[in-house]
Design a protein that fits this description.
- The complex is a heterodimer of chains A (108) and B (183).
- By secondary structure, chain A is an alpha/beta fold.
- Chain A has one domain.
- Helices cover 24% and strands 27% of the residues of chain A.
- A four-stranded mixed β-sheet of chain A has the order 2-3-5-4. In chain A, strands 1-6 form a two-stranded parallel sheet.
- Chain B is of the alpha+beta class and 183 residues long.
- In chain B, the strands form two sheets. Chain B has a four-stranded antiparallel β-sheet with strand order 1-8-5-6. Chain B has a four-stranded antiparallel β-sheet with strand order 2-3-4-7.
- Chain B is elongated and about 85 Å long.
- The chains are: A alpha/beta (108), B alpha+beta (183).
- Chains A and B meet through β3 of A and β4 and β7 of B.
């Protein structure tokens, strides 16, 4: 089953397109698969990385490195992104996160 | 009859000396760079801003730099003076693109992105976790300068994502380039 996850933002829904474990150590959120890194990436790295980050603590261990999350649009300030990003990581961990070109069975 | 002059105390003398040095530096920075630059007056202050604010754009200065080898050499010398880390050219035997660049207290390595093959991570590791460099400048053998604004370090690590075919990455991985980072 494939599940597509959106982050609700004040400018509309933003799709989490892809999550990749990279050899680079700092986790980042990139815009539409480009080299443009969103400012919220610092918070995302804290959210991911042990000891403070829940992703590595709950879903890990992972091979050395960090995560790259590709989003379909900007995600601004605030913490509302945390729950959908956590769900997306959990789905990715199970191989169930739908990519932008896949037809999802469910949409969150 | 002689007049008695009250000499300033050590603290006042020290402050006066600092003020004097600051004024001399200000005058030096404001002075025009003495090159035949087509009549344009380019001050060291302008070169300094160009180096230390990698986000700034100065089309006129860049045009002058592209035409004037002496000005490029000045920029390189100034960058060397104000930088904290200097990664020198590699030994003559080195050729091709290098996997890492190293200097005392600083290392730059390159990791290809697994998600996007056309993108590469540039990872700068600093021994001193208290440092917060804000810019990087890289010069190749013709003194041409590429600049990068650096994001805030995380526990001594600075990470950038660039296109694998970008000029800046080619320059950083060129064994003949010289890299400067502030601190």
């Amino acid at each position: 089953m494939k599940v597509r996850v959106y982050v609700a933002t004040t400018r509309g829904p933003v799709q989490i397109e892809r999550i990749t474990r990279e050899a680079a150590p700092i986790s980042q959120i990139c815009l539409r698969r480009t080299t443009s890194v969103l400012p919220i990436s610092t918070d995302y790295d804290y959210f991911v990385r042990q000891p403070s980050g829940v992703i590595e603590r709950i879903l890990g261990p992972f091979e050395p490195g960090g995560f790259r999350l590709d989003a379909s649009d900007e995600i601004g300030d605030g913490d509302s992104w945390q729950l959908p990003v956590f769900i997306a990581h959990a789905l990715h961990h199970e191989g169930c996160l739908a990519g932008p070109d896949e037809v999802p069975d469910k949409v969150l | 009859m002689s007049e008695r002059i009250q000499l300033p105390d050590d603290y006042t003398l020290k402050v006066a000396e600092q003020v004097f040095n600051a004024l001399v530096s200000e005058a030096t920075l404001s002075a025009s760079v003495d090159h035949s630059d087509g009549g344009k007056h380019l001050s060291f202050r302008r070169l300094y801003r160009y180096v230390t604010d990698a986000r700034s754009e100065d089309a006129e200065l860049e045009a002058a730099l592209s035409e004037n080898a002496a000005l490029r050499a000045d920029l390189r010398r100034l960058t060397a003076k104000v930088s904290s880390y200097q990664i020198s050219e590699l030994a003559a035997a080195a050729s091709g693109l290098v996997a890492q660049r190293v200097a005392p207290g600083c290392r730059i390595r390159f990791e290809p992105s697994r998600a996007e093959v056309a993108q590469t991570y540039v990872i700068i590791s600093l021994d001193d976790l208290g440092r917060h460099p804000r810019w990087l400048a890289v010069f190749v053998d013709d003194d041409r300068c590429r600049r990068l604004a650096l994001p805030e370090p995380r526990e001594g690590l600075i990470q950038l994502l660039v296109d694998s075919d970008s000029d800046i990455l080619a320059a950083l991985r060129n064994p003949k380039s010289e890299i400067f980072i502030d601190g």
